[in-house]
Design goal:
Length: 259
């Protein structure tokens, strides 16, 4: 960018409070001019195409048209520098860190916001538009692949149907051609083979520890040695599950230590 030229920014988030927070944090920055405030993906696509911003604060998860779909709808030559606003876990954040595109994890503070802005300003001052476009597109491709795992399941129970977020699941066990989902004090029977459900879940968050058991890695409290070189997996609620020898290495890699 040329010296003295203000950075033209667009804010995209379906949450009004989130947009307001970014506006407030930019209010004292005289180098930035907010030219658009978008509440959904459709508005974002229109704003980027018509106003050609230098920088976009883009929410990853929005209904109907998410952040990924917004960028996919924009011609490569028009893609601006993007600071993603996200609730993704640490595995996904590594994808942001290895690219030159920055991210903000909700909720973020002013210190983290200003760090993202300094990085954006530096890149806008030194890098060519084509470089920015290619890095953003590369990151988009990687994150789109990560987003292919389901985030919720439709549960039918008691004459009603409702959504269960995968993050609410503690562990899953096979029951013949069905699986039983354990979530807190509740459990639900789903007509799905355990192999099929395993393929739909993020393997980094839901590893298989036995031919009939899948766990939520965030629910693991400890591992206890058991007979015949096997282990018991203890969940935070006290549930005890067996870890088969064939699954030990993979679980150890996810937990960051050899078993």
């Amino acid at each position: 960018m040329t010296a003295g030229k203000r950075i033209r920014a667009v804010i995209v988030d379906d949450e009004p409070l989130a947009r307001r927070k970014i506006r407030q944090m930019l209010a004292r920055d005289l180098e930035v001019e907010i030219i658009g405030d978008c509440a959904n993906g459709r508005e974002a696509i229109t704003a980027i195409n018509t106003q050609n911003p230098d920088l976009v604060f883009l929410d990853v998860q929005m209904p109907e048209i998410d952040g990924f779909a917004v960028l996919e709808s924009i011609a490569a030559a028009r893609i601006p520098l993007v600071i993603f606003v996200t609730a993704y876990d640490q595995y996904a954040l590594r994808a942001f860190e290895v690219s030159a595109v920055d991210y903000l994890v909700k909720p973020f503070d002013r210190r983290r916001f200003e760090k993202a802005m300094q990085r954006a300003k530096s890149r806008l001052a030194t890098e060519r538009g084509s470089d920015l476009n290619q890095q953003t597109l590369a990151l988009l491709a990687e994150l789109r692949a990560r987003s292919s795992h389901i985030e919720r399941l439709v549960i039918k129970a008691g004459g009603r149907a409702f959504f269960l977020k995968t993050e609410e699941i503690d562990w899953i066990e096979a029951e013949g051609k069905y699986v039983r989902l354990h979530a807190g004090k509740e459990s639900y029977l789903l007509r799905e083979a355990i192999g099929n459900i395993e393929g739909q879940l993020d393997p980094k968050k839901f590893p298989r520890i036995h031919r009939s058991t899948i766990i939520n890695i965030d629910r693991v409290r400890e591992l206890q040695p058991w007979f015949h070189n096997e282990y018991r997996v203890i969940l935070h609620d006290g549930t005890e599950l067996m870890l088969s020898r064939s699954c030990r290495k993979k679980l150890g890699e996810l937990l960051g230590s050899a078993i």
